[in-house]
Amino acid sequence: MPQRPSFPSVTRKSFLRGMAAAGAAPLLPVAAAEAAVPVRRSDFPLLHDGTAVDVFVDAADDPAVIRAAGDLQADLERVGGVRPRLLHTVPPRAELLVLVGTIGASPVIDRLIGQRRLDVSRVKGRWEASVTQVVDRPLPGVGRALVIAGSDRRGTVYGVYDTSERIGVSPWYWWADVPVARRDTVTVPAGPFVRREPAVRYRGIFINDEQNLTTWSHRTQEPDKHIGPRTYERVFELLLRLKANYLWPAMHPYSDFFNKHRENPELADRYGIVVGSSHPEAMLRNGVHEWEPWAEEHRTEDGTLPLYDYTVNPSVISAYWRARARENAAYESSWTIGMRGLHDSALETQHATTVPEKVLVMNDIIADQRRILAEEVGPAAAPQIFIPYKEVLELYNAGVQVPDDVTLIWPDDNHGNMRQLPNDAERRRPGGNGIYYHLSYWGRPRSYLWLDTTQLSKVWQELRRVHEHQADRMWIFNVGDIKSIETGLSFCLDMAWDVDRWGPGDVEDFLVEWAGRQFGRRYGSEIAAIRTEYYRLAAQRRPEFIDKAVFSTVHHGDEAGRRMTAYEQLLDRARRLGSKLPEAYRDAYYELVEYPVHGAWLMNLKYYWADRNALAVRQGRGAGTNRFADLAEAAHAEEQAITRRYNTEIAGGKWDGIVNPYPSQIPKAPGRPAVTRVPRQETSGLGLASEGNETGADRPLSFSSYTRDRRFVDVFNTGFLPLEWRAEPSAPWIRLSTTGGELTDQVRVWAEIDWPRVPEGTHRPTLTFTGAGRSIQVPLLVVDDGERARRRARGFVEAHGYVSIDAAHFDREVPRGGARWRIVRGLGRRTAAVEAVPTTARPVTEDLTARSPELRYRVRFATAGTFPVTVFRLPSLDERGKRRLAVGLDDQPPTVLSGQAIATGNRGDAWARNVEEGVEKLTARVTVSAPGEHVLRVFMVDPGMAVDQIVIDTGGLAGGYLAPPESYRRD
């Protein structure tokens, strides 16, 4: 692979901003009401007064370039309503012309280079690079030309599509119905603009678990196929517009395998897409569909079907691979070597039962495949890749010999956490390293195929770590059905092109820019804020992972209810913004913004009401029990309704079948939660449960002058007949949201303290609830240290029997030994997390207080004692190492905490819990010698550790799924 230039590159971000400064019109799609950008005399008009500039591409250029030039022709028509001519011979006279060509394949481009009219010094010989520049009098009879020249065929193609995006044609114009704003005049700046080679050489997707895509394709694209050439043409175009170049095609039983339709590989080559295959599909063979017919034609001597087992039938399997190598030798392909079982199952080896024996078998398999490729494909058999996925990783680590020119593709744990990254020796291999990363997944412990729910800052953190470990040859992203992953995929491919484009503090800026390109710049910031909050809530628990009794309905102000309030506010925000958009943008907005928010809210909402229903049964409620059951089922019905709308109404029914939260093949999907109803009884009765109690009021309502919380009491009817009730506080400084009335099912009463009226000290007042001939008292614990103490407090203050800390709110960060902690915005369950970097730093295992980078938090304790401190770290793995950090208080020796380092692939164990919850809770104990101010210290042991929250339980911490609300603090 050519070396990347040593001088700073013009990032795509700065390129777009530079064009904005130069007056490009428009860089970001402009909604109908937005003003046009002024035209500068130096700009090049592609469309002017209803006339489009013709596009020239030499007929001798690569078919991929000629085809992309045709897309530019179509894009200019989309913008201006007029279709330019696509020329293959230079016109005798033209005032303006677009010249598209590849260095070494276009005589016109080569002539301009030879005449020193076109500077390609930073492009020539590079991988997929290009330059765009206006050249005056480039050819006899041509006044000015916009020249798009690529270092190779895809470099030219990307230059073409950059121009299309610049004039307002989104890569998602078809796949997400992003409209193209119409204009009579469109210009681009004179340039030159150099698009350097990408950070990652091969960048692409795996269409996987594609049941919905197959259903949609069969219904709307190709009724006689189950994903065929017509669908793949759309996929190829999308990939190129996103600056990708690589595909693992659909491979499941319900889809047609890629090579079934011979037009597929031919089309891919014509588009310039490199086609490979996934970890169970060695040598471009789809075992799900192709092995059984092959075995039928190659029965053994005794007439039985040969097994897909290299220790039993090596010659039959070798011939099976050879046939595909010969058949696809002419295409630009990626060859997966090694072997797993059929259809994503483990390697079968009847005559090799131990790991060392299986290693030898794998070595033989690789040698055989390499021989086949050398004989059938020759030097063009590149790249070759080896994917140590699941059980194959164990064999690789046990000694499988992968030739140095083969690219190692490191998989994540299927949930966005890299399992293992290359060591020093592997980084030196000429074949390099890549990754296989999931944005969508089917399997253990739970599947997530429905929505794009992986937090972008999490993706950024892992991909940065990957690139720092020099895994930069190939990045493949599992995108499921493609639809719903639009935003995440765009971000991943942006990073693959320019990994330095976004830093730890500005991932949301990607969303601002990306949303602005789809919907107009005026809406970019608000859509970015909506998506950021959507990802944050998904980081707490993916909507696909929701289940009964996950979030607490009784602790921390009803943490489940607070989450639902956040979702409801988010949906309201999304709807209000959607109502402001021009009508043409409504379909795209529904697909990219509103439906994901609405669907995630409803998935959570129905389980929230089901949990309230189950709690109501335990509490002995009457009418309220059935009310909660009705609400749960109504939320489920609404979820089905919005999905029907997506499939049958949006874009005129274009996406029929593409969205389904519950495809029949998906395991462990949340569905319709069971609810309980109670028979109506003509009775009434007063019952209550105060916050922190499932029933009754044994745990007092806790109030602190620092946190100034509000607390709730659920007052309910144990029957079905209305009753009159009232509430009375024992102190005049207790405020209630309501003090009585008629009660049919239930009411939530909120209690707050009027702090200026409270005497300093500790108080134990009560609330008295009466009704239906019954009186119930609710105890309160009110601690008022006074306003002066509140103003003078520094750091985090203990209250309610705990201290809750957001890790990004440290008092001081102490770098040591070339390593440090940095804040990553938008990462974790709140607003930011901290990460130990560089991720390639060496572990610090001795003398931590002097050698390890450190975070310090000031904490004011009200009590003394030995208390558990729990660190909420974001899961990360290292199957050849450890995942450790350390915590300590003041000058006490720190305690090293070890996190889960291995992905087991099981259900119900530590790894499964971590990926379901998005955090791992590591607990040590610290001793507070006396009340007052102390310093909590967090040390890096292994690099790349990310810490989200820290909770110290001083004796009052209530149960809950999330960390409690952050403690009061002053800097």
UniProtKB/TrEMBL annotation:
It comes from the Bacteria. Residues 1-35 form the signal peptide. GO terms for biological process: carbohydrate metabolic process. Pfam families: GH115_C (PF17829), Glyco_hydro_115 (PF15979). One of its GO terms (molecular function) is hydrolase activity. InterPro entries: GH115, GH115_C, GH115_sf, Hex-like_dom2, TAT_signal. Residues 795-966 form the Gylcosyl hydrolase 115 C-terminal domain. Keywords: Hydrolase, Signal. PANTHER family: GYLCOSYL HYDROLASE 115 C-TERMINAL DOMAIN-CONTAINING PROTEIN, PTHR37842. This is Gylcosyl hydrolase 115 C-terminal domain-containing protein. It comes from Streptomyces variegatus.
